[in-house]
């Protein structure tokens, strides 16, 4: 197959879950003989079109800041979509299928415009469906976000979702979509297992962006209730809640046992801390997938997540860890059990193995092929 991936940012020049997914799937398909092109912004050095790890990277828009005050820039997404239309149209005969990452939404609409005069199928990868979350994210502008999300879901496409919860929400948003195939996000299982453990690790670990939805404040309270004096908690990540969380930790009895490590530039350093930790806790109530759960299970951690309508934690963790109500008390009870050595009924490593990128790439290839009618 000749596959065109559409993403305004390109891994590893910009790091993030959606772009890493394209990179991992794309390079595996390229290795097996498929022709891969990634359309994105010009974040790399050198000419606008290069070959990288067997894939063609084609810049259609210049490098630009992606965020505006902690939020993804809407104008950036619109600009990239505008810049994409003509290059994709001109090269449309070079591809058999176009795969677009959602969110942002505008490149989906641009891809449809570029391919409207051809039979080139557009596959969309839905990481989340926000619906009412727009009210919290945009406030008075929420109707604009909801309208764009609905419009994006309504255009002709071959959608896939990274989790069951996202598939269900997409089907609710647009009844024309049913039986949306699920192709989860992935991990490099062997790499995680071979990373050197951190020299100065922690017994309990959290890793993620420090925003309200991650509910790290509840983790701090739960840890303070049950952790023995010889147990430590490491918090990896940055975000708008950092100072609030640090102030909260300073007022806890266990304050000397809690360390904020900030953002770790090297991904292997995060994995190294997972390899040391006995327990990984992420009480996040909003997870379109939850890749850190899979990574931590591959590293051998007992994982604790929460059961919430906006989170796919229960799908990812299964019976290989704890999935509890998102309350301080329930987190404390599960954390106490994990510290005491509770073993889940399913092996965390075996649960994680199904998310290896090799398996994910094969599942993705099948969906792309089905879109072609193969």
Describe, in plain words, how this protein is organized in 3D.
It is a single chain. The protein has helices at 17-31, 74-90, 106-115, 133-138, 142-154, 164-173, 189-194, 216-226, 242-250, 267-276, 291-298, 313-317, 328-339, 348-353, 357-371; strands at residues 2-6, 35-42, 49-52, 55-62, 67-68, 71-72, 97-102, 122-126, 158-161, 204-207, 233-236, 258-262, 279-281, 302-306, 321-324. The strands form 3 sheets. A 7-stranded mixed sheet has the order 3-4-2-1-7-8-9, sandwiched between helices. A 6-stranded parallel sheet has the order 12-11-10-13-14-15, sandwiched between helices. The longest helix has 17 residues, at 74-90. The protein has 15 helices and 15 strands. The protein has 2 domains: 2-186 and 356-371, Glycogen Phosphorylase B (Rossmann fold), CATH 3.40.50.2000; 189-353, 3-Layer(aba) Sandwich (Rossmann fold). The radius of gyration is 21 Å and the shape is globular. It has 374 residues and is of the alpha/beta class. Helix 3 links the parallel strand 7 (97-102) and strand 8. The mean pLDDT is 94.
Salient structural properties:
374 residues; 15 helices; 41% helix; globular; Rossmann fold; 18% strand; alpha/beta; 2 domains; 7-stranded mixed β-sheet
Radius of gyration: 21 Å
Q: Provide the number of structural domains.
A: 2
Mean pLDDT across every amino acid position: 94
Task: Identify the CATH architecture of the largest domain.
Answer: 3-Layer(aba) Sandwich
| The CATH homology group name of the largest domain | Glycogen Phosphorylase B
Please provide the ordered H/E string of secondary-structure elements.
EHEEEEEHEHEHHEHHEHEHEHEHEHEHHH
| Biggest sheet statistics | 7 strands, mixed
